[in-house]
Amino acid sequence: MKDDIYTMLNEADINIDDYKKEDFNDIEKKNIKANFKKSISKKKSHKRSMVVAGVVIALTVILFGTNTGVEALTRVLKIAGIQEIGSFMGIQKNLDDYKTVINKAISNNGVTVQLNEVILDGQELTVSYNVTYDKKLSEVYDEKLSKVDKGWHGFNCISINGKELNTGNGGGSRSIDDYTIQTVLTYNLGKQDLSGDLDIKLSCSPVGENEDINKKDENWGFEFNTNGDQLKVDTKEIALDNKFTLENGTEYTLQKYTDNSLGQKMYASISNFQMESTYDVSLKGTDDLGNEVEFYISHGWKEGALFKIENIHGNLNENAKTLTLTPYAAKYPEKSGRMDGEYKKTGDEFTIDLSQLK
């Protein structure tokens, strides 16, 4: 995983210097690290490789507040289009039938947040957005600061049909010029009824030094409607019953494998959940064509876990007929720090017959 950027959570410090991505400078590393550590629930785990592409669009801009200025708006309009979720995540299939394009921007205290598009996939909401500052990133994120707290820290609240949710998220970011950061995040919405048209609100955290990042401002955020029914209809699945147990006694039972245009997932229940030790868990192996395949744990808690296909080796080959996988786990540090544990086999090899998808 040395050629891609992952988000290592569960109180593990993110050491960007370990990842060999040549287009990140020191300022960008600090910016990415700060945004993730302040916006991600500690009980979730997520990592994702990133590929970036864009298309030219016309923006609908809503401006309010103070200190926005003409220059910040001009920079947003000069960005070479939104960054589509599919292109950013390395997904090769057409997602037009499933995504909701927002194309709106709001500004506050010299920061403009542009919400590009969203996709609802089961219990997950993936959002693409850009953040543009009226100052260069090197000024916003001063290397001399002991704490990076001058910038915008992300969406701090999601509500669906008027109900506020407690969510965790993970994803990836990159700078696209001296003033702008692009991010794609996926939020775990929990066990909610997400059928039909949904009214979703994203509240933004305040902007400025020493602000309370948990404070909400109903006038500083986005509201939109989306619907995930079509993607749900187009999702195929296979029932599973494969178990493995971690060194701390936590037992995973894989229950189903799903496949749709956003990729492949495996859902698991968890029993004998242990708080004392936490692990990063992966399902690694090959398809019947000899291609390497890996599923990483997107999130895991006592209510269950979700594993997603890792496209570091490319998307799953459409001609593959079987997957042969083995569970591996590495223990996170007891205290915040680098994730450097060794991955060890934690269960028996198993095979998934993809011809059973329906």
From TrEMBL:
Key word tRNA-binding present in the record? Answer: no
Residues in DUF4179 domain copies: 46-131
The answer on whether this UniProt entry bears the keyword Nucleotidyltransferase reads no
Q: Which UniProt keywords apply?
A: Membrane, Transmembrane, Transmembrane helix
**Ranges annotated as spanning the membrane:** 50-70
Start and end of every DUF5643 domain? 235-353
Under the heading InterPro entries, the entry gives: DUF4179, DUF5643
Source domain of life: Bacteria
Q: Name one Pfam family in it.
A: DUF4179
Q: What is this protein identified as?
A: DUF4179 domain-containing protein
Phylogenetic lineage? Bacteria, Bacillati, Bacillota, Clostridia, Eubacteriales
